[in-house]
Structure prediction request, 484 residues.
Amino acid sequence: MKATPVKATPVKATPVKATPVKIVVDSARCTGHGRCHAIAAAVYQLDEDGFSTADGQTVGPEQREDAQRGANACPEAAISLEE
Amino acid sequence: MTVEPREMAEEAERHPRGHFMASSGPLKIDPFAVIDELGSVPPFWADDSSDVMGYWVVTRYSDARGILQDHERFSAVGAPIPWVPLEDPLLPTYSDPPEVQKYRRAVVRAMSPSAIERLKPRMEEVCAGLIDGFIDRGHCDVVAEFANVFPITVFLEFFGMPVAERAEFAYWATRWLHDRKNQPEAWARIREIVAAQIEAKRGGPSEDLLGVIANATIDGELIPDKAAVSLASTVFIGGLHTVPMAISWSLRHLARHPEIRAALVADLSQCESAAEEMLRLYAMALPKRRVTRDLTFQGVDMRAGDRVLVSTPSAGRDPNVFADPHHAHFDRPDNPHMAFGLGAHRCVGLHLARPELQIALRQWHERIPDYTLEADADLGFQGGVPSLSRLPLKWIAGARR
Prediction:
């Protein structure tokens, strides 16, 4: 039994790079769990029905890590990032 | 008699290699201990006295995702485990795309994150009122006095069920959940009550969920009576048992792990991630599918017509995806568990369920930060939706906050 919670899962993709990144959302896979928005609201917005509107959006280096965390949180694996 | 080699292989695959508890009967042991014992293994054929036909069980995260995102090979039609003949099956639960989206479209906006946001003040109020009722006593049965009451109170208001109908409706809902023998009768009564409400709300304002469903359009036409009743009943049943059990398993976990609880109490802003961890560990909606054609999946030969049970709590405890999977860590940076299912059938009520669990955890720990499980308590474990029948907790009375 651990005395305190520890950081369990490392953020998968980072060293933070100084380049922008493009968010790709597979609309066939997105079913509106809303986890991307819950994890990184500044990067991922939702439409009126709760589906991600981030497809095609480009984010700057300062938001790369948040974009990656939002993508990793998607249980449908619907989000990927392109350089 | 000669046996073709392929048939022999198939029979070997069907030799039961594990036990599972899909039925909603009493269990002598903690269902999540059974889940842990199974581990993350290739698909196996289950031995289950409640379903003599047998079925596949899938435990690994990637296998679970592969099945739930592939409705062409793994259909939801005719998939119940154990098999319960119902006059009208639950829709859209036991339907496939594109039909399932037609139904979902009718309710998804009414249950979107922004729509549910407006309910939060009322959720807070209901939750606080329930805790007021037992906090000074120093003990309560969490299941009966808190977890069962909170979400159903919120839901029946949101649903638009008139106050006068709520007690009878809740009675039949309980029968549906806990009395398998009378399930068809209970389902019929639930549908009768819903049907009367749908009829009353036809042509009226869509100011509650029943009104939204009664006046929805499918394929450009007003939704047929039968479809409206099935959809409304399914949405109701979907949250009836799952949210109470999410709250109950969470409080039981935190009662058994005081060091984790202390970390939560020290920083209640973690309630959102704590709720996700509890959902990962105690996922309890176990989706079922039917194999549509003979196929090989992850090395096992499945036949058209075989049914598959996806053990979502096993997927949430898969060490290939979650580091230290058996412990709660409120600081996981991402947590792609599948407690609400995946694919075309992901839970339509998840935006309602999440804040309910978060609010329950936050208010409880704000006001009752220190509590223990009553010694030697019989929690009355149940299979099906893995359940506790009771959860007696105690704390120092008078430390009211």
